[in-house]
Write a structure and sequence with these properties.
heterodimer, A: about 5% strand, B: about 30% strand
Chain lengths: ~250, ~300
């Protein structure tokens, strides 16, 4: 299994997956620097918390696409070179599924870590007030990773089962719109779509006062039930996806 | 001779239709077994069932003496190299990098990469990205991949597909040399009879999912031997005369078919008929080509 995982990373050589992740991070850094270019004292006081809020919004739009691209880059090499029938004579197909997911998960975890680094860089450059809230970063890392990996898993299943990667990429693009628009719907609705969990697990709220034009950010209770529900969906999807892939005839 | 692959009643149903029916394959150890059949006959499906890539609807397969099942499949296949339908490769990697993937997954020493590259004569192209390879080079890379670890059994599905005549000849020579040089048994499928005739010493002919012939290629060659066909005005009388003179013959379609013989003997036979006042209508030499036999067996005239 370790050998197969190492080989999976070896296969991503020249696939520029890291570049895809870094391009997203660069875009988000540019957006953050622009967005926080004119901050008053009040904004600086809420700098860290508002960053986490805004990056979550960005994630709901961008991460589904990045997940789709990463999963597709990892899986389509097998379709293009018709290698699955050969791999299936060497290692169990379930292991192929596992290592592909772990490889994609590595890049998606890396993406969240770089995001946190981006927030830290922005915060120190702009002079956000107070110490960086590492506990909140911990929650952000946990929840964003959990949603990312669930979306990545869905994309991997599609990318492995459909030779034509347009199917998976179209679902990814549609998912990003679902993710963004679900933020405007009640949480009960958000929980129906996997991309809606960026919003479900957001632990920061925003209150914009129309009269004073002042925005207040505040912490909200963490929806642990939503987190458990996401994990259940993840497990069910993993088991179903792995079984379908393993029983496929080549 | 021991069998390296045996299948019993092997069958596969797709969309309620049996695409492969009751296949009893027997592949002798050390042979180059030609698996011959027209396009769509069920060759690839059969080979995939042997490798466990497709689950049989009925029957069983034994490889290297072990009945193949989902638990022992991968351990049996450690001794089997395969190239099914088209070569498997990662186009964005070099030839050597491709081989490294399968060498590592198979747990083989690194020197295996250079060994197989040497066999397929790709040493000078090993640092080239595979997407820049010609089809022939990709086929050779696929063969190199199958040769990793010097497997006891090699299964090659139409390995010369898409190659130019020179590439085909090179691939055939390479395949033919494998049993003697490396002690392998090779199963090679093809829809080209001439190709199987050049490479194989044992053959299985499949048609519409059924095995219509299996055995040594020599048996097919014997069937293709020249015969003498004689037609007379009184065949029953001529037959009696031949029987009386201990002349071997068969009767077919109004002809007396004799094995090919010397001109002097043939002259004596015709003289014998003349002495008995039996009018000789026609005498002709008949030769069945391997193609004729194949067409007889498969009852069709395609893909040749």
């Amino acid at each position: 299994m370790i050998k197969a995982l190492a080989i999976e990373f070896y296969k991503t050589h020249r696939r520029k997956i890291f570049l895809v992740v870094m391009a997203m991070i660069a875009a988000q850094l540019m957006w953050a620097l622009w967005s926080f270019s004119r901050m008053d004292v009040r904004d600086l006081e809420q700098g860290w918390i508002s960053s986490l809020f805004q990056f979550t919004l960005l994630n709901s739009l961008m991460m589904p696409v990045i997940c789709a691209v990463v999963a597709s880059r990892i899986c389509d090499v097998e379709h293009k070179g018709q290698t699955l029938k050969l791999l299936n004579t060497i290692i169990p197909s379930g292991h192929i599924f596992d290592v592909k997911f772990l490889c994609g998960a590595f890049y998606m975890i890396l993406a969240v870590l770089f995001q946190i680094l981006t927030i830290l860089i922005t915060g120190y450059l702009k002079g956000f007030n107070g110490e960086a809230p590492f506990e909140l970063f911990g929650y952000y890392l946990l929840f964003t990773t959990a949603v990312n990996l669930s979306v990545l898993l869905l994309q991997q299943v599609l990318s492995l089962l459909f030779t034509n990667q347009m199917v998976a990429l179209t679902v990814g693009l549609t998912g990003s719109f679902f993710g963004l628009f679900s933020l405007f719907f009640p949480q009960s609705f958000q929980k129906f779509v996997i991309w809606g969990y960026y919003g479900v697990l957001m632990f920061i709220g925003m209150d914009w006062d129309r009269a004073t034009r002042i925005t207040n950010y505040y912490l909200t209770p963490i929806d642990w039930a939503g987190f458990v529900m996401l994990m259940v969906q993840f497990l069910v999807l993993y088991i179903i996806g792995r079984v379908i892939f393993s029983h496929r005839e080549w | 001779m021991a069998q390296i692959i045996t299948s019993t009643g092997l069958g596969k149903k797709y969309d309620k239709v049996m695409r492969v029916k009751d296949l009893d394959l027997k592949v002798p150890e050390g042979a180059v077994y030609g698996f011959l059949g027209p396009n769509g006959a069920g060759k690839t499906t059969t080979l995939k069932m042997i490798l466990g890539l497709v689950k049989p609807t009925s029957g069983s397969v034994t490889i290297l003496g072990y009945p193949l099942n989902s638990r022992n499949r991968l351990s049996i296949l450690k001794n089997v190299g395969s190239l099914i339908e088209s070569p498997s490769y990662y186009g964005h990697l070099t030839g050597a990098e491709n081989l490294r993937i399968f060498q590592t997954l198979r747990g083989l020493p690194e020197k295996e990469i250079d060994r197989v590259l040497h066999i397929v004569r790709l040493e000078n192209q090993k640092t080239k990205i595979v997407n820049q390879y010609s089809l022939g080079m990709k086929q050779r890379l696929g063969l190199a991949c199958a040769l990793l670890g010097n497997p006891k059994l090699l299964i090659l599905d139409e390995p010369t597909n898409g190659l130019d005549p020179a590439g085909m000849q090179e691939m055939r020579e390479l395949i033919r040399s494998l049993p003697n040089q490396y002690g392998m048994t090779v199963v090679v499928s093809s829809h080209l009879l001439s190709e199987i005739d050049q490479i194989a010493n044992s053959v299985g002919i499949i048609h519409k999912g059924e095995l219509v012939f299996q055995g040594s290629l020599d048996i097919l060659h014997q069937k293709s031997k020249r015969n003498i066909a004689i037609r007379t005005l009184n065949n029953p009388m001529a037959a009696k005369i031949f029987q009386g003179n201990n002349i071997l013959f068969e009767q077919s379609d109004g002809y007396l078919i004799l094995p090919d013989t010397k001109d002097e003997l043939l002259a004596r036979y015709t003289a014998c008929l003349a002495e008995n006042r039996i009018g000789l209508v026609r005498i002709e030499a008949r030769e069945k080509s391997l193609e004729d036999i194949f067409l007889e067996l498969t009852g069709m005239a395609v893909s040749l």
